[in-house]
Specification:
Helix content of chain B: 25-40%
Distance between the termini of chain A: 41 Å
Distance between the termini of chain B: 46 Å
Structural class of chain A: alpha/beta
Number of strands of chain A: 14
Mean pLDDT of chain B: 87
Protein name (chain A): Peptide ABC transporter ATP-binding protein
InterPro entries (chain A): AAA+_ATPase, ABC_transp_ATP-bind, ABC_transporter-like_ATP-bd, ABC_transporter-like_CS, Oligopep_ABC_C, P-loop_NTPase
Structural class of chain B: alpha/beta
Oligomer: heterodimer
Largest interface: A-B, 44 and 49 residues
Mean pLDDT of chain A: 79
Radius of gyration of chain A: 24 Å
Keywords (chain A): ATP-binding, Nucleotide-binding, Transport
Pfam families (chain A): ABC_tran, oligo_HPY
Strand content of chain B: 15-25%
Largest sheet of chain A: 8 strands, mixed
Shape of chain B: globular
Shape of chain A: globular
Largest sheet of chain B: 8 strands, mixed
Low-confidence stretches of chain B: 1-19
Number of helices of chain B: 14
Order of helices and strands of chain B: HEEEHEEHEHHHHHEHEHEEHHHEEH
Number of helices of chain A: 17
GO biological process, one term (chain A): peptide transport
Chain lengths: 434, 360
């Protein structure tokens, strides 16, 4: 991994990063205001009647050597985002900078030299390998396309790559159908690594694989990162896998990043209600915790259409904390805690950003159902309408801020007794975690 | 649902004590083999289990372990020309494998119903959701279309579809993934089946929708007291849903027991492997997962002896190479808890408590 250009200017990246206190390591990829709208055309003249706003203004950066996980429900635009930063799609707006160079609107020809540094691993190991090519041809293709002549010839290099990803180099002349799903995914990884890329974008790299194979591939990605100093952007919907592989995690909802934080903060104390709902929905593989997990937040309904996303905060139609301001004003993605950026007016585990605005929207009362388990239900006899700490962030502000809100808003404060219970249950859940 | 039907269903059975006689569904030594050009595929090779009313059995395993084939076998959905099915399936005192296919067809949909993984391919794209539910209802009830449609609207409402009276005339493609899955659940439940088989009901869905669907299945089970078989590869889902657990590998059951026990004291190396393979949100971050080496076996050439032996890190512990020559039978390792492994109880207990459990 020789990247003289990248190593040479750490100072410069420091300056661009002044606000980001968690910044260590230079920025490899910087995305600002990135947008992708897919036009909807109708009628004889194919006039544009609207647009699917798949990605609608996102900012983030990826630092060298880290793994950025991107999670969200299907349709939130995470895969489109992956294709935009690898420039497989042309962005509608915004900017993508790779190693300080603007690659947003490079032509195919101009992009070609960059392709060496940015590679992609695809989700489906069955459709991403050409069935009529041998493994040798598939993995060797990048060398031919880029006109690279590796030391010792392409064949030798391909065989080395195959052994790096844990395949038998003798399989050089076999066809994809002779391999299992896990092995095919390894072939895809070998192809992505062929040219020593700096950034690897993996779109759902393990979701098509069986659990036991999934673990093999996750470990392989881990090892390769350590050995080759790779930088990953891993797009996945499985929150446990993302937690396992990522250093920082971006949560997307309807084309926007709603929370961007390092792993620890995000999973211990999620601030955006959506993140919290998402985390609480993950089934825990331990029957004994069926009772211990104090509550689940059950979001109602589906993700709204990205053709006409809700006004203001896009999550307000499903959020149990939504107030008037959420409908009218879009919250900025602000760094509320060092290293934790959140776009929310009423974040969890943190002080309210809009304390004056306390009246819940009527939809909010039905937006999410809190499903207490039987044991928890007894403790929660108060029946809080708000979301008590399901995940127990272990931060003291939570109950306080909720209590504050409850006092200030008698209208929404049917839950005053519940707030106490929620404080208790969060304490209990914290104990549980220990 | 009318009161009459509710009465006909009887009281939802209370969670019964561990006595196999009162099992609602009892499968004995089920074998399902397929003749192919490459050889005989032994998809299911001797599986036995029981499910009681009001209880949920989780079947877990990797793809190709035979879990879906088992469930289709219970439903009698294998074509007899292609599949060789043997063994016994007792549903509420009636044997199904040897029974007349017409009799089984009358039970299907009425007494036992199935939720499939992919609602888009399980529902007919040409008919409205309502028409499909109406058809399912009228097959078993001689009522007018109008009554049946009312029933369909009722069911759609019951599974949480907003504006059911309007959506009943919608086509499957007009529904989102989660809604479609709900519609299929409505279709499966329209006749109040006493046995519900859910084959990966949430695999294609997002976690938030998955949570909704699992809750729905749980609620409906409570309401109707049906027996549920939950087939999945997601240990998280079975942990939330199942009372009992059946772990399948290579067409056979390798471990079976109460879910709590299988999760807390698993007694088969494959179960250990599954538990070690998955990253978990409820535990501290680990550096590495503990994968199972290798890949699942071919069902044409199942490894001799224990099917898991090529992937098992402990295959050499039992003496005389027995893991490679003799197929282990299920032996009791706890109350209502069986595992098929050549290692002695003590060896397994020691390995689990000393080597595996601390690393999870």
């Amino acid at each position: 991994m020789s990247d003289e250009k990248a190593v040479s200017n750490p100072e410069q990246s420091g300056t661009t990063l002044t606000k980001d206190s968690a910044a260590d390591g230079e920025i490899l990829l910087k995305v600002t205001g990135l947008q992708k709208h897919f036009p909807i055309r109708k009628g004889l003249l194919q006039r544009q009647t609207g647009a699917v706003r798949a990605v609608d203004g996102i900012d983030f950066e990826v630092r060298k050597g880290e793994t950025l996980g991107v999670v969200g429900e299907s349709g939130c635009g995470k895969s489109t985002m992956g294709r935009l930063i690898t420039r497989l799609l042309e962005p509608t707006g915004g900017q993508v900078e790779f190693e300080g160079r603007d690659i947003t609107h490079l032509s195919v020809g101009q992009m070609r030299p960059m392709r060496r540094d940015v590679q992609m691993i695809f989700q489906d190991p069955y459709s991403s390998l050409n069935p009529r090519h041998t493994i040798g041809t598939i993995v060797g293709a990048p060398f031919k396309l880029q006109g690279v002549q590796p030391e010792g010839g392409i064949k030798k290099e391909v065989q080395r790559l195959l052994s790096v990803v844990g395949l038998n180099p003798e399989h050089y002349n076999r066809y994809p159908h002779e391999f299992s799903g896990g092995q095919r995914q390894r072939i895809g990884i070998a192809r992505a690594l062929a040219l020593n890329p700096k950034l690897v974008v993996a779109d759902e790299p393990v979701s098509a694989l069986d659990v036991s194979i999934q673990a093999q591939v996750v470990n392989l990605l881990d090892d390769l990162q350590e050995e080759l100093g790779l930088t990953y952007v891993i797009i996945a919907h499985d929150l446990s896998v993302v937690r396992h592989v990522s250093d920082r995690i971006a949560v997307m909802y309807l084309g926007k990043i709603v929370e961007l934080a390092d792993r620890e903060s995000l999973y211990k104390a999620p601030m955006h209600p959506y993140t919290k709902a998402l985390l609480s929905a993950v089934p825990i593989p331990d029957p004994k915790r069926r009772g211990a997990k104090s509550e689940r937040i059950l979001l109602r309904g589906d993700v709204p259409s990205p053709i006409s996303p809700p006004s203001g905060c896009r999550f307000h139609t499903r959020c149990w904390k939504a107030t008037e301001i959420c409908r009218t004003t879009e919250p900025p993605l602000a760094e509320l805690r060092p290293g934790q950026r959140v776009a929310c007016h009423h974040p969890e585990n943190f002080e309210d950003q809009q304390p004056q605005d306390t009246v819940l929207l009527s939809v909010a009362k039905e937006a999410a159902e809190l499903v207490p388990t039987e044991e928890a239900a007894e403790a929660e006899a108060g029946g809080s309408e708000e979301a008590p700490e399901a995940e127990a962030g272990g931060s003291e502000e939570v109950p306080e801020s909720e209590a504050e809100r409850a006092e200030e808003a008698p209208a929404a404060a049917g839950e005053a007794p519940g707030t106490v219970a929620s404080a208790e249950s969060s304490a209990a859940a914290t104990d549980d975690n220990k | 649902m009318s009161k009459l039907e509710k009465a006909a269903l009887g009281e939802p059975a209370v969670a019964a004590p561990s006595d196999t006689d009162d099992a609602f569904l009892s499968v004995r030594d089920l074998r399902i083999h397929f003749e192919t050009d490459d050889g005989l595929v032994k998809s299911v090779d001797g599986v036995s289990f029981d499910v009681k009313r009001g209880r949920t059995l989780g079947i877990v395993g990797e793809s190709g372990s035979g879990k879906s084939v088992t469930s289709l076998g219970v439903m009698g959905l294998h074509r007899s020309a292609r599949a060789k099915v043997s063994g016994e399936v007792w549903l509420d005192g009636q044997e199904l494998i040897a029974a007349d296919p017409d009799d089984v067809r009358r039970l299907r949909g009425r007494k036992m119903a199935m939720i499939f993984q992919d609602p888009l391919s399980a529902m007919h794209p040409y008919y409205t959701v309502g028409q499909q539910i109406v058809e399912a209802y009228r097959v078993h009830h001689s009522v007018s279309k109008k009554v049946a449609k009312q029933r369909a609207v009722e069911m759609l409402d019951r599974v949480g579809i907003p504006e059911p009276a309007k959506r009943v005339d919608g086509y499957p493609h007009e529904f989102s993934g989660g809604m479609r899955q709900r519609a299929m659940i409505a279709m499966a439940l329209v006749n109040n089946p006493e046995l519900l088989i859910a084959d990966e009901p949430t695999t294609a869905l997002d976690v938030t929708v998955q949570a909704q669907i699992l809750d729905l299945i749980r609620d409906l089970q409570k309401e109707f007291g049906s027996a549920v078989i939950m087939i999945t590869h997601d240990l998280g889902v079975v942990a939330e849903m199942a009372d009992d657990l059946l772990v399948m590998y290579g067409g056979r059951c390798v471990e079976r027991g109460p879910a709590d026990e299988v999760f807390s004291e698993p007694r088969h190396p494959y179960t250990w492997g599954l538990l070690g393979s998955m990253p978990r949100l409820d535990r501290d971050q680990t550096d590495r997962l503990i994968p199972i080496k290798g890949a699942p076996p071919s069902l044409i050439n199942v490894p001799s002896g224990c099917a898991f032996n090529p992937r098992c890190p402990y295959a050499d512990i039992p003496k005389d190479n027995v893991t490679r020559t003799v197929r282990p039978e299920l032996t009791e390792v706890g109350e209502r808890h069986w595992a098929a492994c050549h290692m002695s109880q003590e060896q397994r207990e020691r390995i689990w408590t000393e080597e595996i459990a601390p690393k999870l």
